[in-house]
Amino acid sequence: MLPLMSSAADTLAAGSITLAETANSVNNAPDTGGLADFLRGFFGPLFLVIVSIVAVFFLFTREITRFAQFIILAIFIGIVFYVPGIIEVIAVALARAMGVTAE
Question: Is pTM, for the whole model, over 0.85?
Answer without folding.
Answer: no
